Amino acid sequence: MTTEPLIAITNGRVFSGDQFLQDAAVLIKGSRVVGLPKTAEVRADTVVDAAGAYVVPGFIDLQVYGGGGHLFSESPSASVMNAIATALAKAGTTGFMITMATNSSDVVNEAVDVLRSYTHPALLGLHLEGPYLNPVKRGAHPAKYIRPPEKHEIAALLKKAQGVLKMMTVAPECFDEETIGLLIDAGVLLSAGHSNASFEEAMRGFRQGIRAVTHLFNAMSPFHHRDPGLPGATFQSEAAVASVIADGIHVDYHALAISKRLLGKRLFLITDAVAATHSGTYTHLFKGDRYTLPDGTLSGSSLTMMQAIANCVRHADIALDEALRMASTYPASLIGAQDLGRITIGALANLVIFDHSYTVKRVFLGGRSV
User: Fold this and answer.
1) Which of 22, 210, 284, 306 has the most crowded CB, counting CB atoms within 10 A?
2) Based on the number of CB atoms within 10 Å of its own CB, is 346 exposed (0-12), middle (13-18) or buried (19 or more)?
């Protein structure tokens, strides 16, 4: 029988998810954090010197379409998923929902088939963005695949998915209570997005069980002083949380700062990151700092979670500890993952070490160096 080595990360600025710890080391055994001793008390088989860098919980991205030059929906396969998961983990994203935008039933079914038999320690499940959206706010989603929700179709999808479908973006104004209940009763986390909902329609959706809002401000009814729309309902709600793309392109940094002030811990980060593609349903063209469709429609970001954190601090006056919570603790809480998003005894040893220029230096996924 082999004994798992005890790994100690020392000489770093450790952020627990609640606060920065003074003179703390992180002890890892197997896949878990087993201690947070003072540096002088460290006894370990392997010592990793963080050299004064930050040691923080691994980032969690609940909306990302690809990575490493691959888009999952272009070629759904285990090999593509491996490439995406490896690239994301190396960049610090140790937990992610692979996301598929509105697509043909054949492509969605193919993706579900792949994910039912695919596992990776960073993969948290499938996020379907569509097809039950409002075509008025479709953004880059192809109109030909957007459709009203039908109970029999949703039931068939849930049966086929066998639990891999964890999250879904829907337009609340397109659902009645019974139809939306099918998804909620199956444990699918619902997020309002690509929606032209009025304030009243959005609030009704929250009361019916929609718990989140997808990429705040993008592809939704605007905030207007005579109809606050979905953004206004999000601000007014006491429970709904919202994701935001902090690249300064999808949302102006001043709007990000205002939203943070209003929503507090109810605002979290996603990348909405895609990859350049020239085949399949979507053609994403890289335009230097963003992706667009051939007609110029904004179609996705080129963000990493590390860059999103840096943007929050540098451009939206958000403190580093709070930006880190937006990238880890808050999304972990939303999906009910109690052992993610924190560095505490018993938590999964998903850790990121990055320096003061926001460069990722080292990543641990389930206790193993990536």
Assistant:
1) 210
2) exposed
CA 125/CA 98 separation, integer angstroms? 6
134 lies in the same domain as 154: yes
109 membership: H or E segment, kind and range = helix 105-116
How many domains in the chain? 2
Of 49, 252, 272, 321, which one is the catalytic site residue? 272
Q: Do 201 and 319 lie in a common domain?
A: yes
Within-domain flag for 180? yes
Task: Report the alpha-carbon distance of residue 181 to residue 361 in Å, rounded.
Answer: 44
> Does residue 1 belong to any structural domain of this protein?
no
Catalytic site includes residue 272: yes
pLDDT in tens, the chain (370 residues): 468 999 999 999 999 999 999 999 999 999 999 999 999 899 999 999 999 999 999 999 999 999 999 999 999 999 999 999 999 999 999 999 999 999 999 999 999 999 999 999 999 999 999 999 999 999 999 999 999 999 999 999 999 999 999 999 999 999 999 999 999 999 999 999 999 999 999 999 999 999 999 999 999 999 999 999 999 999 999 999 999 999 999 999 999 999 999 999 999 999 999 999 988 899 999 999 999 999 999 999 999 999 999 999 999 999 999 999 999 999 999 999 999 999 999 999 999 999 999 999 999 999 999 9
Q: The tokens of 178 are what?
A: 């019974």
